[in-house]
Amino acid sequence: MLNKNESRLRRSRKTRARIANQKSIRLAIHRTNQHIYAQVISADGGTIIASASTLEAEVRSVVGNGGNAAAASAVGKRIAEKAKTAGVTAVAFDRSGNKYHGRIKALADAAREHGLQF
What we know:
- With 118 residues, the protein is of the alpha+beta class.
- The chain has one domain: Nucleotidyltransferase, domain 5.
- It has 4 helices and 4 strands.
- Strands 3-2-1-4 form a 4-stranded mixed beta sheet.
- It is globular.
């Protein structure tokens, strides 16, 4: 019997294998109770093109608490702006095995609204 984290990691492996097979740039999300992190990673998986998180001063000044949907939306907006600056418009969404719900959904919706396509 798998525990909650092992199940999440199993789901994330399947997703990452599919994205690697497509050879597309991916938007990877990492979520903790207090913060949320987003990275745009190159197709070969070796280079981080852009990153944003609730630890950045620009995001912290907008939202006080990093563990809510408003903070996730701010990170989604920031990662979309950074990715567009780096010349990336289309990505594959890697939710790291988390449910597409709550903070993950808020980040994804904000990134889409600000120009990322996935």
